[in-house]
Amino acid sequence: MDISVSKMLVSDCGAIKASQTSNVQEFVELCGTQKIWKPSAGETVELDISTLSQELVVKLFQEVTYIKMCITLRQSQIRYLRMPNLVEMYSCQPGRPAFLIEGNPNLETIEVATTFKWDISEEAFHIVYNPGLRQYPPVEQCKYCVFEPNTKCGATTTSLSYPAFDQVMQNCPGKRSIVYHETVVVTQEQFNQLCYNAVYLQICFDITDTDYQSINCPRLRLVKPCAPERCALKSRRYSDKELARLCAGSEIITPQKGYYLTVSSSYVTEEEMNNLFAKAVFVEICITVHESEFTRLRFPHLREIRSCLPGRPAIEIIGNLKLKELFIMNTIRFPKNELIFEISENPHLSITVINQLKVICPGCKITANLDCELQSPTYTNQQLVTACAGKRIIRPSEGHMLVFNSPTISEAEMNALCSKAIYMEVCIDITNSRYVALRCPHLKELLPCQPGRPAIRIVENLYLETLVIPWNFIYPTGEMILEISENPRLSLVIINQLKKLCPGCKITANLGR
After folding, report:
1. pLDDT tier for residue 55 given thresholds of 50, 70 and 90
2. Pair type for strands 296-299 and 325-328
3. pTM of the prediction?
4. Most exposed among 44, 273, 307, 426, judged by the fewest C-beta atoms under 10 Å?
């Protein structure tokens, strides 16, 4: 799943971010009418369409002429895959097919444009075990494509592969892709039978103390081990930096018996964290991202996760004001009844991501911190004020505005509201009040409840002496986030600091009046 989709402009289908394919149905809506699908610079984009209905598959591919990404259609129920305008298709990575189509029992038709450029679309298709396929393009014109609709020789998952090696030897000699997930001992003749025509080979051969004289694999493009690559950890403790360095790019990351693994944003950089899990398919670890500067966190291939210790979340992501992208596949597996995620106080993480994670783990502590956790869609102003007191994130749900006015909220309540807040999306209006002080000592980011409206308005307060706001908080460019005037007891030092913070805001000490 990846998991993080934001609204894209039409042109963005020519500059797709990896996170924007996490929700495949939203991707259909975003790019289903576009001709060009290309990644943003430096992005590796993957899309799994296996769960789409026939109707949505038709809608998705009806217009596209150019694709550069890795698409998977595995064990679906669709009958036809029509891409009538597609003329160019490129993989997201060398050695991987642009379109993996395997184990679809009802699939009868695959169609591309008659002008499809087979000469330059060298890794366009990997078509394996689709026994109902009757109509298909001339895949034999493709240099590195695999077309084996009636065998399981190149199936990429254990569930679809041949379970016994004698079945491999019976069906796979001469095939372009051969996968077997165990180590085998073969004669020289058997080895060359399997290897001579193979373009892709994922199998482990034990060739030790043999009478082999020659091996012949003239077409081989990619070789992978029969089992995922495990990080070679020893029986000792590892620092976060050591772990990130040693296990970056590993497919399996697990500790030795008697030890456990942890990694934290406090000790590794965003790049190190993402590199650590870039290829991971199975991990047993506790990942903590707290109060960080991280903007993205991705687990693009992770199929199974286990916590480092009983009762502890495997992934804990809390209080990250800059985090905008989180990608976790919606098919991820974890032990039953374990609360594998704890995710909160990440205000720029999309609601789509949060809701998808809640579906994956309904019992986990996962929240977007909307309306200060009030569960009812309707609530009184007093209930809202009480609920928001002491909260770190104060932001509205869709369609709501959070407005707090001094005539209906006491000074104590307003200060309780601000006391621990690090992010607020509000409109606070303190006008003609008897307030003496307003303190928001931890504020890091402030947004107004409505564009063009000040987030904090403090006007005509004869008794106000103290205003505590950090002088480096973030606010939207161009917004007049503050309006402060006619507060005669507020010191000139405070006024001048606020003017420096927001030069375009309406802030005055009203001197000379």
Report:
1. very high
2. parallel
3. 0.69
4. 44
